[in-house]
UniProtKB/TrEMBL annotation:
Top EC category: ligase
UniProt family annotation: Belongs to the succinate/malate CoA ligase beta subunit family.
Name of the gene: sucC
Binding site for Mg(2+): N192, D206
GO terms, biological process: succinyl-CoA metabolic process; tricarboxylic acid cycle
Bilayer-crossing regions: none
EC number, as in UniProt: 6.2.1.5
Residues bound to ATP: K46, G53, R54, G55, E92, S95, E100
Oligomeric form and interacting partners: Heterotetramer of two alpha and two beta subunits.
Protein known as: Succinate--CoA ligase [ADP-forming] subunit beta
Chain residues that bind substrate: N256, G313, I314, T315
Metabolic or biological pathway: Carbohydrate metabolism; tricarboxylic acid cycle; succinate from succinyl-CoA (ligase route): step 1/1
Catalytic activity: GTP + succinate + CoA = succinyl-CoA + GDP + phosphate; succinate + ATP + CoA = succinyl-CoA + ADP + phosphate
ATP-grasp domain ranges (all copies): 9-55
Length: 382
């Protein structure tokens, strides 16, 4: 899950990374009160949306007194930034900036390593730096088992050609940032800009953090979880305990197991169609799960046909078939559905489905033919 800047700063703060003091608020009055509590001006009024380039969009303003906080908070709360409505603003003590840098850690899956990036060209989007001046980004790959030792860290910082005054501060923050990334179970931590102040301190002025949801059980992430922005489909799936990701295509997909669900997306593409979602019903095959999954897909205006792709393992084919039939009895499905059922006791499962086949429920014997059928049905109804 992606954190808002103010949550990212809270996350950084818990690993002792220096961030500015501030408060997150949702109303103009609270924004003014928060600024007064910070008890120093200027403060920065920052729109909290999960999209970059807030500064350019007018979502970040320096306020010199309470009246300016009121003016800027009035402008920013409710503002639309690239399709995201601003509901929360973060008021923080303004920093003096001598230089702006870029720092991040993320996973390089191809290299099976962590990737650290550090650049003296901060403040702008890293993609732009990568395109226009790739040599300005110092990269290191860190073996997750070995970790990041101080000598390597120092070499890396030296390679980035920061102002020498920033060296010690950068080494300190980057060491902590790596710890935050690893121990905090993040997939991405990014500070842009990481600033050098005229006084010589190095400080995180922005925070972008993506946490690994699979590690949630190890942490207290309820507060982050509570503010997640989900579309209606994702919210319904989350409540039903389904692994769901909304996409833009027209073939709704239900599969068991994340690997099979991903392959199903590929096969729908291969058949010339486009998936409306990723949905993993997981193990088991009770009707409740199918009811929840089918309801989400059926209510999605993008969906034109539904493809169920199940490979029976511990869950046997006849249980799956019975689950599907019971679910269909409980909801009035508006879209045609194609089932491919294979694996343990698939023959028994198919026998159960056979008497119910028709325009609404169709069956195919292979994954590719089922995908082709679902794509054809979706195209006919587009
Ligand atoms: P983004 O545009 O969404 O990446 O938002 P940032 O938090 O990175 O802020 C954008 C820019 O606003 C920064 O690169 C700074 O130049 C400026 N800015 C943000 N906070 C401060 C501050 O405390 N003092 C000053 N002088 N500038 C700031
Ligand atoms: Mn930024």
């Amino acid at each position: 899950m992606d954190l808002f800047e103010y949550q990212g700063k809270q996350f950084f703060g818990s690993f002792d990374i220096p961030v500015s003091a501030g408060e997150a608020v949702t109303t103009v009055e609270d924004a003014v009160a928060a600024a007064e509590r910070l008890n120093t001006y200027p403060v920065v009024v920052k729109a909290q949306v999960q999209v970059g380039g807030r500064g350019k969009a007018g979502g970040i303003k320096l306020a010199n007194d309470a009246d300016e906080v009121r003016t800027f908070a009035t402008d920013i709360i409710g503002m639309d930034i690239k399709g995201h409505t601003v509901n929360v603003v973060w008021i923080e003590v303004a920093s003096d900036i001598a230089e702006e840098y870029y720092a991040s850690f993320t996973l390089d899956r191809a290299k099976k390593s962590h990737l650290g990036m550090l650049s003296a060209e901060g403040g702008v989007e890293i993609e732009t730096v990568a395109e226009e001046n790739p040599d300005a980004i110092a990269k290191i790959w860190i073996d997750p088992v070995d970790g990041l030792d101080e000598a390597t860290l120092r070499e890396w910082v030296a390679a980035a050609n920061l102002n020498p005054d920033a060296t010690e501060g950068a080494v300190d923050i980057l060491g902590k940032l790596y710890t935050a990334y690893v121990d905090g179970d993040a997939d991405l931590v990014e500070i842009n800009p990481l600033i050098l102040k005229p006084t010589g301190e190095v400080h995180a002025l922005d925070a972008k953090v993506t946490l690994d949801n699979n590690a949630g059980f190890r942490h207290e992430w309820a507060a982050y979880e509570a503010t997640q922005e989900r579309d209606e489909r994702e919210e319904a799936a989350h409540e039903a305990g389904l692994e769901y990701v909304g996409l833009e295509g027209s073939v709704g997909i239900i599969a068991n197991g994340a690997g099979l669900a991903m392959s199903t997306l590929d096969v729908v593409n291969q058949a010339g169609g486009s998936p409306a979602n990723f949905l993993d019903v997981g193990g088991g095959a009770d009707a409740d799960k199918f009811v929840a999954a089918l309801t989400i897909l059926d209510n999605d205006p993008r969906v034109k046909s539904i493809l169920i792709n199940i490979f029976g393992g511990i869950t046997r084919g006849e249980e799956v078939a019975n689950g599907i039939i019971e679910a269909l009895g409980r909801i009035d499905l508006a879209h045609p559905m194609v089932v491919r059922l294979d694996g343990t006791n698939a023959d028994e499962g198919r026998e159960i489905l056979k008497p119910h086949l028709g325009d609404t429920l169709q069956m195919e014997s292979t994954m590719l033919s089922a995908a082709a059928k679902a794509v054809e049905l979706a195209a006919a109804r587009a």
